[in-house]
Amino acid sequence: MELTALILLPFFGGIAALFAPRWGRDAERWVAVAALALALVILILACLTPEEGRWIAFERFAWAPSMGLQVILAMDGLSAALLVVSLALGIVSVVVSWKITEHSGLLNAALLWTVAASNGVFLSFDLLVFAFFWELMLVPAFLLISVWGHGDREAAALKFLVFNAVAGLGLLAAVFYLGASGEVVTFDAFEIAGRQIPHGVQVILLLGFAGAFLVKLPVPPLHAWLPDAHTQAPTAGSILLAGLLLKTGAYGLFRFPPMLFPEGFATLAPWGLALGAFGSIYGALLACGQTDAKRLVAYTSVAHMSIVLMGLCGGVYFSLMGAGVEMVAHAFSASALFLLIGALYDRTGTRDLRELGGLQQNAPRFAAAFAVFFSAALAMPGTANFLGEALVITGMFQVNWIFASITLISLVVSVVYATRLFKRVVFGKSRRTETLEDLTLREMGPIVLLAVATLLFGMLPQLLMGALEGAVGAALAPVAIP
Amino acid sequence: MPGLLPLLPLILLGGGAVAAMLAAPRAPALSRALAALALAAAAVAFGLRLPAPDATFALIVDDRLARLAGLVVCLSGLGSLAFLRPGGPSREGPALLLLATMGGALLSGATHAASLLLGLELVTLALVALFVLPLSAVALEAGYKFLILGAAGAATLLMGLALAHAATGSLEFAALSHRGALVAAAAALLLAGLAFKMALVPFHMWTPDAFTGAPGAAAAFAGAASKVAVVAAIVRLDTVGPPAGWGIGLALFGGASILLGNLVALRQDGMARMLGYSSIGHAGYVAAVLGAGAAGAHDAALFYIVVYAPALLAALCVSTLVGPEARIGDLRGLVWQRPLAGWALALALISLAGLPVSAGFFGKYVIFTALIEARAWVLLGLALTGAALGAYYYLRFVAVIFRRLPDPASPALPGAERVLLLLATGATLLLGIRPDLLLDALP
What we know:
By secondary structure, chain A is mostly helical.
């Protein structure tokens, strides 16, 4: 039952948070933190007592038997790592939006529901249930942007939703086809993985899956929703978008194409590599040209996730492992940057790089935090991001030296944008930051947590790599029926 | 008389209509209460008889399909009654609604041309009267259009039935499965007549006016209850003897409706108008699935239309509350001003858009799966396009509902509306989590 609890706890926690404001001051926030913390404890306990075989935990029960619908939840190291990320970022996002009083019941509910739905995505192996959670993610994230966002938030929210909902339809159609095309209606991914699907059909179905994943990832030219959504979203929304929702796209690509459509994946993987190569350069170059700090970080996400895509499509051990590590590392570093920029925006009312500066003199804690995550953004050795990107590049050299060189070039460009961000924000002088209040204790908590995670996995890579071993193996040699 | 037991719901509805009509001039409140009682009793009668053995009469049959459709029609009628504005010139409203419900219930069990026509006309004429009851110019226009188009539809239908009779000498549905040019022509005319009731392109012109001009409750009945009954009638025709060329016709109507309904809905800023055009699109999905003719097509069509009913009822109820002329901007911050109405509308729109956790997600599932089973790739493509467009225009409204507003000033909802919204929202959520409850109940 522990896997079900990981989904239902945040979900019902969200419903409780909706009604909690009438119970007392800050009750909805404490409810949210408690639900997530409890889920985190359950997750850790489950990881400490793993079951035999490929999965740390495995659950299967009927949902709507007459429709062929069952719940199959399975957790391996990859899922576990992403679940830790999701619950931790959930707590972080509740903490950073502590001061938002407007409709705070629904705010915390939306945060928890986003976490619940993405937990469902990370665990489900019944494809219809997977699609269910996939679509479910959109609604609370949409609310987060459109209700608590900045500027033209409704347009940004709608853009986010339409891009993802339309791409989701391809996934839905492919899933329904897989379910309906067997002898009995079933959406059991393990059973479908054992089927012989003609090559052409595999390619078409994979395009349906990949469309949804690539939009969520996102990779150019499917990324148009991301800069707006990230920029207009409230800090908590940006954290969950960058840390969680983008990872669901990467997770989907990691898990399902090699498992369900091995031959089709082999056909399309080179295109994925090309798309990833293009995206890594494109995202990095655009990041260099941004003046809005949040927009800049949004474009770096495009670049980093494109590198993840290359790793996933590389299909060799190192590239896959690198993609997995980078997914986790980027979740920590990108959400920390969004947190810092959000905190800066709350104080100065601007995210414009031309107007910021002087943190090093006026707010040393701010400056130090920026330094840590700036090094992560340019993949400085010692951070988990370095490990991820180094592994992807190593893998790329086994696949194709051209793609490997392109990744290297994108790393060089990442130095440019990261340095620019760092220089403009931390050094120099700015009227706006002269009376700046440094990071408060409540803000330091999440920052320290994320910094420790980034550095820990950078220094002790075995921690993370060991956990990902099983998933990487399965993506190399697909089909393992428990 | 046990032989009349299967007719009990019809008797209740008819008797209720007479009683409500008698009470209307003196005591409108009593008339309303009587109508609600009759509708509830008929719904219970349908519901209790669901597992009973089939009973066949000369003109109608009492089987699971008829009972389920009858139950949904009665519940939708009850839902429409909840937000039928009482008082004024619309004192006869409850009685008319009962008559329309009776027509729908009759239609659900029709196996014979006579009962089919009787049911359809009962619905149409009662609805025409309901449409014009506010006696405003827009209402009169809506009623007028509905009457003219309805009469044309009925005439087409009659002509079709006449041709069928000429060809086969029978007026039973089974006769339509004969082959021959005359029967084919009869089937085509019959289909056109039914397409009018389903509001399928090109017989859809009455819908937008009905949704904007007529009272919300009447539009809700036309959009939800009467469509459930017509889908039941089409399913029955299809089961007893699928007429020749029927599938292609339905597929064409369906495809055109999906495209046109969703494309036009995309450009609407008026809440009711958007719902009106999108309802054409939703009818299109059902027609497309029935036309594609997969093994599970009947279940899919019934599931979809039944799931559609509570969402449409809730949406139109809220639309009536904020004013039938409401534009998208008038819904600003509805969730904060009137929490129940706002949440109910948001969930209804999410369900219509086909997102979880709402019954609409599984509606999308059954439609897509049935089209895939039938290998109807063109229709599937159209349905995907329609769903993509729908996601946009529905959620545009959802975004506005949740817009931040400083002052939560909330006029309390009337009791009947409150109950309706709660029940409709509950049904949408329940079927979004346990869709098999409905799917297992389908015949």
